[in-house]
What we know:
heterodimer; A: alpha/beta; five-stranded antiparallel sheet; B: mainly alpha; 11 helices; 2 strands; about 5% strand
Amino acid sequence: MSQIITTVGLSKHFGSLKAVNNVNIAIKEGSINGVIGPNGSGKTTLFNLLSGYFLPTEGTIYFQGEDITHLTPQNRVVKGIGRSFQLVSIFPQLKVYENMVLSVIRFLKRYKTGSRFYLSRIDANKEILNDCMQCLGMVGLEDKAQLRSGELSYGDQRLLEIALTVALKPRLLLLDEPLAGLGDVEISFMLELLQRIKKDFTMVIVEHKITKIEDFIDELFVMSQGFVICQGKPSEVLYTPEVRKCYWGEVD
Amino acid sequence: MIESIMFGLTIGAILYLVSIGFAITFGTMRIINFAHGSIYALSVYLFMMVLPYVQNFVLALVISVVLIIPLSYLIERYIIRPLYGDAVHYALVATYGVLFATTDLIKWIWGTNPKLISVPTKVTLQIFDVDFPLYRLIIIIVAIAVFFALNLFFRKTIAGKVIVAALDDSTGVRCLGIDQYRYFSLVFIIGSVLAAVGGIIYSPIVSAEPYMGFKFVLLAFAVTIVGGMGNLTGAFYSAFGLGMVIAMTARVWPRLSEMMVFVVMAAVLLIRKEKDFS
């Protein structure tokens, strides 16, 4: 398998704090990857570097062989990197289906052309609406398409965010704590959903609830104080002493 | 009393037109755009220059507004856009500089004396036994029409939805791969056009003077804050509400009338400070 995204000597410093420190990772195309680590170990900063919200202090990021270190977030989405956020990032004033439309308008032919597009009606294109409804069906929100997304329950907002990210048709899906704040039933639905879509994407998932996703990931990265201290199959990584020490505080 | 109410509605209408661009820029891009006052003042002076040539109020208004569009684009593209995402005070200082520069430009070209512009129609209407100038009624109607047109724009069009989404969460818009700057330029220009229209239609009621931009941009700031920072419907109500505050205070003590706006703003801020600045 070829590598979809590679970082070389990636570092991000905030003043004297080294949030991400000389990280060299290579994510294989089609694989499901987990990133764990204590709070403040640099997981979300790493995501922000990969998705372009931060520029690295040092280092390079290659996406499918191309140097994307200085690309803006929206151009990375166009290249094929989609991400979800730790705090749900949807547009509460918009209806559920309108959220979806915004996520697919890039694929409209007229998007790149003229000013008429600016003023075209949001529900004018049936094909786009069908795409949106299909994506909503995937996460089980098709009945709620006409609701204002701010009225959805927290769990549904999470699902909507996943649907938004998936609708971008990314090659690489970065999910920042998709299970955070969900109840048990919602967690099992989310896991089942991720299971269903995983064949279509390469995924990197930051998650605290490691036991929930353990069986599901191919490669696990453990971060501590900005470093990737360990990587490999989850079954092996989780039982190495240094991981147990930094993650659970165990010494033996 | 009825006179005061009508006066309040007129000022409210103007405040709304002038504030909407300021409110959108603040709400979507977190930029306090003092250069909005430059657009307001310059458009009035352009209008005075154009009017004698065309001899038609509406035509001169349209021409001046069209002339102001490239200028507002340049301000957005080269002064504000480089500062998106930076701390809020950078843009504040930069656009304040633009406001100073244009004010001096106005003084240099047109002089410091206030200039009078004649009202295009002197017709008055009888409303509840009070003579009310038709022209002021037109101003109120224009503002209400703009309110509904903007609502339609934000509710129905894709561009409108992108802006509403950006008001909620502009980082989120970027992570959808949307080039938000195209849409920001568009709303920036819409806002500038409305400020220009507001400035020009208000100019026959007051007079044009070089510092008018300063005065109105501060009022727009107050409207935006009282309306709820980026809440566009809120801006509509707050503009008319503050218009009433000005009119009612003017009845009692004219010299205090505009100061009262900022007293109200301060009160609203104190009540809401946790919510808005958290």
